[in-house]
Amino acid sequence: MNSTERKGPGRPPRLSRERIADAALRGDVATLTMRELATRLGVSHSSLYRWVPDRDGVLDLVSEVMVGRVLPEDEPDAATWLDWLERLAWAMHDEFLAVPGYAAHVARPHRHHLASFERLRDGAVAAFRAGGADTRQAEQNWSVFGLGVVRWLAAAGNDPAEPPFALYLGTLLRGLPRHDEGRRPHG
């Protein structure tokens, strides 16, 4: 038994941000309540509120953990940018689908945890820039890539017409331009 588990009467187990995020990730984040989370942690409802202000605060912790899990540790460069993006997408696939309701939660409009979202966005934009996109195009590519991956994950298992993730990802990455191709052709 570790020092954070309840040993019987006396002081409640010590909480930590990591422990709260881990407990939140053990169930469906779409339906998670603060009471349910407190029960999973073996603490009182009020004790949990000393660590996080509300459900959004818990989801912020979850976002921090998930982004840390999916971001490749290396930096993308001209030789590895496409591989880097594929590893990011597959990590998102594996981690997001491992937590019931998480992909659907991320796909819905909601208040994103800014620091986590920016880490994810900045990594992907750097990869597109390493692949030859200018700043504007890299930002647009991130929007298409991020939304495309998350929407596919949110629909996974719900739509039998969805193509396999490998096919979807390959098509998505091949279709993203490396420079501004959004101009209308003359004609």
From TrEMBL:
<dbReference type="InterPro" id="IPR050109">
    <property type="entry name" value="HTH-type_TetR-like_transc_reg"/>
</dbReference>
<keyword id="KW-0805">Transcription regulation</keyword>
<keyword id="KW-0238">DNA-binding</keyword>
<keyword id="KW-0804">Transcription</keyword>
<protein>
    <submittedName>
        <fullName>TetR/AcrR family transcriptional regulator</fullName>
    </submittedName>
</protein>
<dbReference type="InterPro" id="IPR009057">
    <property type="entry name" value="Homeodomain-like_sf"/>
</dbReference>
